[in-house]
Amino acid sequence: MKTTKKAVVSGLAMIGTAVLLAGCGAAPESNGASAGAGASDYLPCMVSDAGGFDDKSFNQLGKEGVDAAAAELGSQDPIEVESQSETDYASNLQSLVDQGCSTIVTVGFLLAPAALESAKANPDMQYVSIDDTVDQDFDGTTDAENIKPIIFDTAQAAYLAGYLAAGVSKTGVVGTFGGINIPTVTIFMDGFAQGVEKYNADNGTSVRVVGWDRAAQDGSFTGGFEANDTARQTAQAIIDQNVDVLLPVGGPIYQSAAVAIQDAGREIALVGVDADVYETDPSVGELLLTSILKGIDVGTKDAIVAAGNGEFDASPFVGTLENDGVGLAPYHDWSDRVPAELTEKVDALKADIISGAITVESYLAG
């Protein structure tokens, strides 16, 4: 597992600079794949990762993007299928091919191998890959010309969240855990840890991060993205180390973390990922310090609208703080507990990351 992850990170790192430029630059010319006969004949489709479309996170955001695009285009109603496990990926993709989909959106790093196989077998179809570059041979380029990657340098926004978390922590211990040890999960944890390190350097403090060792690239993981007792126990083990800010990374696992926080009977702030969880799941709103945002819905909508208008563009898009592809959600119920000077510092750090004065390390930054 560690060898595979290192290979993935190495391959993805090679494309970091080029992808960032593609994400910030002017839209390249279309590659001409399946221009289509018009929006009324256009059929957008989507395959979820195992979290499902009601995960209040990246699967749900992707679906919202596809639905919004279909509504704007006046296209056929999207066909959207949920995967219960990794064994469903290939068959779900084939079912969409068989139903004559124009563009197929796949959600998540784990779907990339099946997406690539399907794309190569159907070169006249269009594919959009959320959260993965589909570079299975690690040569620095997407492995099929009919796949558009939509990826996010979430380490930048997570850096801000880590600084914020260290600043509000009263115990001097913050924590994080993930679903699976893969780059699209650990990029959050890396950024979060770097933000804590920056806070300590700026303030002469020694706030600790529990659950992730950035040097070893290893930490606490549940083994999946389900909200279950394993996720609750993982969160509890971290909370038991005197943590008072907790970042769960992996779709619905935040729900199990919320249960563990409520069971703890003391003030522990929750940090959401992907969506503004305060808005998508008000049941945990009072716990949320902020959420680390990924513009999955916007990026997906833009890609599908372009494809539906015959302007499919396979160039990778990467979300950054500069292009608002990633960011921090409002502090909502925590607003009056975050000192004004801390908010000002977080805003200043955002500006420094955008200007290049601060470089946040990630596999997408090179």
In words, what does this structure look like?
Its main location: membrane. This is BMP family ABC transporter substrate-binding protein. It is found in: Cell membrane. InterPro entries: BMP_lipoprotein (IPR050957), Peripla_BP_I (IPR028082), PnrA-like (IPR003760). Keywords: Cell membrane, Lipoprotein, Membrane, Signal. With 366 residues, the chain is of the alpha/beta class. The protein folds into two domains: 2-152 and 296-319, Response regulator (Rossmann fold), CATH 3.40.50.2300; 155-294 and 331-355, Response regulator (Rossmann fold, 3-Layer(aba) Sandwich). Helix content is 41%, strand content 16%. It has a six-stranded parallel sheet, sandwiched between helices. A six-stranded mixed sheet has the order 7-6-10-11-12-14, with helices on both faces. It has a two-stranded antiparallel ribbon with strand order 8-9. β10 (245-249), α8 (253-264) and β11 (269-274) form a beta-alpha-beta unit. α7 packs across α8 (253-264). It starts with a helix and ends in an 11-residue tail after the last helix. Mean pLDDT is 89; it is low at 1-37.
Layout: helices, strands, pairs:
Layout: H1 2-24, E1 44-47, H2 58-73, E2 79-81, H3 89-98, E3 103-107, H4 112-121, E4 126-130, E5 147-152, H5 154-168, E6 173-178, H6 183-203, E7 208-210, E8 212-213, E9 218-219, H7 229-239, E10 245-249, H8 253-264, E11 269-274, H9 277-280, E12 288-294, H10 296-308, E13 317-319, E14 326-328, H11 340-355
Parallel strand pairs: 1-2, 1-3, 3-4, 4-5, 5-13, 6-7, 6-10, 10-11, 11-12
Antiparallel strand pairs: 8-9, 12-14
Helix pairs in contact: 2-10, 3-4, 5-6, 5-11, 7-8
Keywords: Cell membrane, Lipoprotein, Membrane, Signal
InterPro entries: BMP_lipoprotein, Peripla_BP_I, PnrA-like
Organism: Microbacterium mcarthurae
